[in-house]
Amino acid sequence: MTTARATGGVSFWWADLGLPTPDDQLPGDAEADVVIVGAGYTGLWTAYYLAELLPDADIRVVEQRFAGYGASGRNGGWLSASVTGGLDNYARTHPRADVARFQVAMNDAVDEVVRVTQRHGIDADISKGGTLLVARNAAQEGRARAFAAMGERWPEIGVRLLSRAESDQRVRVAQARAAVWEPHCARIHPAKLARGLAATVRERGVRIHEGTTVRTIAPGRVETDRGTLRARHVLRATEGFTAGLAGERRTWVPMNSSMIVTDPLPDTVWAEIGWGSDDTLEDFAHVYSYAQRTADGRIAIGGRGNPYRFGSRTDLDGGIPDRTVEHLWEVLTGWFPMIRDVPVAHAWSGVLGVPRNWRATLGYDAATGQGWAGGYVGTGVTAANLAGRTLADLVAGERTDRTTLPWVDQRARRWEPEPMRWLGIHGLYRAYGLADRIEARGARRTSRIAVVANRISGRD
Ligand SMILES: Cc1cc2nc3c(=O)[nH]c(=O)nc-3n(C[C@H](O)[C@H](O)[C@H](O)COP(=O)(O)OP(=O)(O)OC[C@H]3O[C@@H](n4cnc5c(N)ncnc54)[C@H](O)[C@@H]3O)c2cc1C
Predict the structure, then answer these.
(1) For residue 233, what are the domain limits?
(2) Is the CB of 75 under 6 A from ligand 1?
(3) Nearest-10 crossing angle of helices 96-119, 190-203
(4) CA-proximal residue: ligand 1, atom 25 (nearest)
(5) Ligand 1 centroid – CA 10 distance (Å)
(6) Where are its TM segments located (predicted)?
(7) Substitution candidate for ligand 1 out of 36, 84, 241 with most atoms within 8 A of CB
(8) Is the residue at 386 inside a domain?
(9) What CATH number should be reported for the domain holding residue 240?
(10) 243 C-alpha vs ligand 1 centroid, how far in Å?
């Protein structure tokens, strides 16, 4: 049984920097122009662009713990242009040109994050390599080829199909058969980005009331444990924690994602693995895993583990079950058998928000002054930048190319009540896990079980 030297503690990324002490708690009842609930990337990017568009506005962000406490300080550090839900999915409901524009906007958002961090001297270990997605059995290879074919229909993604030899030249993953590579992804240190963004928006006059929990969001006000904050515009940026707000229990389910990080690998091991670039790395399993090579020479890998807790409960400070650590270690050492003796330094988990249609969304109702953004289903690091920027446009009353993108004002139906919700999500992930095992034993194409699961869940 593999164990991690440290678990929870919010995340390795925060342990690396030192956990912040909550600052500037709301002192009591107050009034502002804009209130944003949640100081993750979504809330912080919204505040950043609003401060640019409305320099004289009194903008407040209210955060239950500290900026970057949620998924933004715990994620895998993939600054990726991936469109949550997929382009083909959007093309069923929107004109092709708009869907293509969405992808281009996501590509630009990757570069926008790089630009803004450079402009403000935020050191977040950012390095743009691309993404390598590796197929390790016949069924996965079929999906890699289908993905590459989809890339031909959508050249905006920039997908290239790689042979085994070409894949090995980028990273030598055991049993790789083929891969696809995409250019629009950078590796980041998530907590450094959150910390740097929070400092930048504070410098621009935005107040972040940390250690202040919002109980209810209503038109014109938020009720917190420290008083009522009134404002013309009230924006919800609570992502995987949204179910904890009054009236929002079934809006987005909080899905868990978990991570482990190794100690720094010796140079000899890196030479064997041959991971010379800053490509992020993923496999084609249904219960997929994603990894990065950190700036200080570790591997951080994430995956689903225990996907969902009954009643939409969220985690406390990143705790993670032993069996999830073991699962991620098995995946990682399956990819790289030569690292079996390298210790696991830290393991943690976090929550992300999943709407019933698996599509991210943002919106703003000018009549009530209420807005929201999130539901990124695990691909929100870049999307939060674009969402925050778009929400700021909408609040400021600016009509831009961003405000007409297909994800603006998407409404999904609510999730089923318990116990259907728990049964459905756990059943789904069991099905995907079973499909992965069948495919690993030599199935030639994608398991029917996964095909049916995709249909039932509404993901295909
Ligand atoms: C383990 C893990 C790995 C991931 N890896 C990747 C990846 O590599 N690439 C990628 O694109 N995405 C990844 N994601 C998803 C990505 O991190 C998120 O989509 C993104 O960070 C969402 O940002 P956010 O600001 O919307 O949410 P969060 O960062 O979760 O921020 C929400 C904030 O709201 C606060 N809050 C919530 N409720 C209240 C309340 N009632 N009162 C006050 N404050 C409140 C929370 O404390 C939190 O700080 C990962 C997620 C996890 C958990």
Answers:
(1) 15-79+190-253+358-404
(2) yes
(3) 80
(4) 40
(5) 12
(6) none
(7) 241
(8) yes
(9) 3.50.50.60
(10) 13
Which percentage of the chain shows pLDDT scores above 70? 98
Segment (H or E) for 74 = none
Looking at residue 422, its pLDDT comes to 79
How far is it, in rounded angstroms, from Cα 150 to Cα 142?
12
What's residue 446's pLDDT?
Answer: 84
Q: Cα of 456 to ligand 1 centre, how many Å? A: 26
**Which residue in 407, 433, 435, 351 sits closest to 82, CA to CA?**
407
Give the Cβ contact number of residue 221 at 10 Å: 16
Q: What spacing in Å lies between the alpha carbon of 385 and ligand 1's midpoint?
A: 12
C-alpha 191 – ligand 1 centre gap (Å): 11
Q: Is 302 in the pocket of ligand 1 (CB under 6 A)?
A: yes
Neighbours of 16 (CB within 10 A): 15
pLDDT tens, residue by residue, 234-289: 999 999 999 999 899 888 999 889 999 999 999 999 999 999 889 999 999 988 89
CB 310 within 8 A of CB 300: no
Q: pLDDT, tens digit, for every residue of 153-185?
A: 999 999 999 999 999 999 999 999 999 999 999
For residue 439, tell me if it sits in a domain.
no
> Which pLDDT score, from 0 to 100, does residue 432 have?
81
